Amino acid sequence: MDVVEGSDCFVCQGLMNKVPLIAEAAVRKIKRYQFGTFTVGVSVQGGIQEREDELRSDLKLMGNETIKTQMARLVATQICSKLHKRIDRLRPDLTLLASPETAEFSVSSKSVYFYGRYTKPRGASQKRESCLRCGGDGCSRCRMSGFEGKPSVEGLLRKRLFDFSGSDRMTFTWLGSEDRESKVLPPGRPFVVEVKNPIMRIFPKKFAARYRGGQVAVSAGRVLPAKPGRLPTFKFRTEILATAVSKVSVEALKGFRSAFKMREVRFDRPYDRPVFKTVYRAEARITGRSLLVSAELDGGLPVKRFVSGELVSPSVSEVLKTEVKCRRFDICGVTETGKFEIGEISRV
Predict the structure, then answer these.
(1) Does domain 234-336 have CATH number 3.30.70.790?
(2) What's the pTM value of the predicted model, to 2 decimals?
(3) Which of 122, 233, 250, 276 could cysteine-pair with 338, CB 3.0–4.6 Å?
């Protein structure tokens, strides 16, 4: 049987001879990425596919491997030998799509899901705030960013995570929230960030993002094995500075601790079904009409509503039998009461 090579090949017309050159170009393309596993796909022009189908039909050839899959396999094998990386077609760190005729490559890197805990001082919001003038569309005031220039945990972490990953495409998920004027004290509030198409995949366990007036610090950092299907439940400790509109009676103050010992409260969520949350403990000290409330609450119970009684019952105002207004609150500790549910691994 004669062996046909190079441009004499009816199907590829010499394209297979370019496999070493394609592999070399691919290595140069992906060398800057940090990865352990990869896969290669090949996109060929329609003429090659049509000629292969014609040949298979005429000769009644069977088999799963096509010229595309063969070229992808050969390119991947050469990349393996040059970079000493492992092929993984199920869930690769890096996916390379090659167009041999045009010598073009596209590279996509699997998202990294980074977990950490942040602490912050007063004066930094959790999320970036949309520009007041343009509402997020971008204007001269916000320098086309769409966001206010005020410090935020999200904005500061984006800059630091860009330094580590080389990607500016991120999606944050927070376990609870707090006000701009709230402190978040150690061990910090948990968060998960999806870093999309990263160049680097290794992140430090601890780092800080400094700004004029303070810093946001991250600890307990780790990369999750896959996208969380569900975040863990949690509870948190908080210290609340509040003001009573009228004088609080001695009797009401005495009964405050017992009223909120492992007490279930109802939260009538706007546009959703009510939920029941637990107040594990709450204590109050009063000076004049200023109250300092120390409490441990279920995650998802809004602190200000718990104080005022808006949509929450029983509340601090209800138990003290007077209107109480929250001036500010700090997050003194967040404890996860469940585990991450990691989503199923699907083929990329």
Answers:
(1) no
(2) 0.87
(3) 233
> Dihedral angle at the C-alpha atoms of 98, 102, 103, 104, nearest 10 degrees?
-60
301-348 pLDDT, tens digit each:
999 999 999 999 999 999 999 999 999 999 999 999 988 887 543 332
CA dihedral 13, 16, 19, 20 (to 10 degrees): -90
What is the Cα–Cα distance from 217 to 26, expressed in whole angstroms?
Answer: 38
Kindly list the distances between the CA atom of residue 342 and the CA atoms of 171, 226, 230, in Å, as whole numbers in the listed order: 17, 6, 7
> Which CATH number fits the domain 112-224, given the four candidates 3.30.70.2510, 1.10.3660.10, 3.40.50.12370, 3.40.50.2300?
3.30.70.2510
Give domain limits for the chain: 6-109, 112-224, 234-336
Listing DSSP states for 163-193 in one string gives HHHS---EEEEESS---TT--EEEEEEEEEE
Long-range contacts of 1-8, Cβ-Cβ distance < 8 Å, separation of 24 or more: none
